[in-house]
Amino acid sequence: MTTISKALIFVIFVFTLICMAFATTVYVAQHDWPQEYDKLKKDHSSKTSQLSQVTSQLQQTEQSLNQTTTEREQKETALNADIDALSEERDELRERESRALAQAKSAQESAGQAITEAVSRRDEVESLRVKWMSMIKERDQAIADRIEAQDQLIVVQDQHGVATRRNQELVTRVGQLENILVSYGLDPNQTIELAAPPPVEGVIRETSETTGLAVISIGSDDGLLPGHRLEVYRLGKLAENSKYLGRVEVREVDPDQAIVKILRPAQGKIRSGDHVASRLQ
């Protein structure tokens, strides 16, 4: 640095001090410092009072904050207790839900088994129903057969009653005839050759498989006598379709009918509507 530069720096520094002194003088000349002091003092008192108030408010706020903090902590504690209770309740609910799901699964499996069993029972019931209907039909058929058998029994009993009465009448008549023969000096036990039946034709009215008897449509008015034998045949639509069935023997006679005994062996089952004749054409 040269001497001129140093001189210039010094001159600038001196000039700066002069300017600062001048500015300070002007500033002091334009302000009333005692008034400014009072004003600043009042401002200080006011600020101090405000500071006291703010401090008091701050203390109250701090107390309120402490109380609020305490209450918040109490509430937080209560809330934590509630959270713990809710957590326990949630765990209990989850456990119940798990048990409920397990029970539902078990119930579903039981329902499936029940449905399968119900289907099996339904099929079994249907089978039993079919068997029951079959048994009912068999029972109804058995009842019908029994009724028919009872009807046939009644007919046979009636025929037996008629035959019994007829037999008693014949026994009485035979006794009377034997007495007459004895009165004429004849032997009642002498065998009399029975003449052949007259030419007659008739039909079978009724048959009984139990007794082997049948009722025919011709009797004593047609010349039939007990002991006469007749031929039995069944007519077909054509002559070559007619069939010989066997022979019957007259046991009892009435004027318009006779009871005959079916002689064995017959060549076919004799039934109502078949024809009888003293000789085949």
Description:
It is a single chain. With 281 residues, the protein is α+β, with helices and mostly antiparallel strands. The protein folds into two domains: 37-158; 195-277, Beta Barrel (Elongation Factor Tu (Ef-tu), domain 3), CATH 2.40.30. Helix content is 64%, strand content 13%. The protein is built from two helices and six strands, in the order ααββββββ. The protein has helices at residues 3-30, 33-183, and strands at 201-208, 213-216, 229-234, 243-253, 258-262, 275-277. Strands 1-2-5-4-3-6 form a six-stranded antiparallel β-barrel. The longest helix is centred in the middle third of the chain and has 151 residues, at 33-183. 9% of the residues are buried.
Quick overview:
64% of the residues lie in helices and 13% in strands. The chain has 281 residues and is an alpha+beta fold. The chain folds into 2 domains: 37-158; 195-277, Elongation Factor Tu (Ef-tu), domain 3 (Beta Barrel), CATH 2.40.30.
List keywords for this structure.
six-stranded antiparallel β-barrel, 2 domains, 281 residues, alpha+beta, 6 strands, rod-shaped, Elongation Factor Tu (Ef-tu), domain 3
Sequence-ordered SSE layout with sheet pairings:
Elements (H helix, E strand, L loop, with lengths): L2 H28 L2 H151 L17 E8 L4 E4 L12 E6 L8 E11 L4 E5 L12 E3 L4
Antiparallel strand pairs: 1-2, 1-6, 2-5, 3-4, 3-6, 4-5
What structural class should be given to the helix and strand makeup? alpha+beta
Low-pLDDT runs: none
Q: Order of helices and strands, N to C?
A: HHEEEEEE
Radius of gyration: 73 Å
Taken together, the total number of domains comes to 2
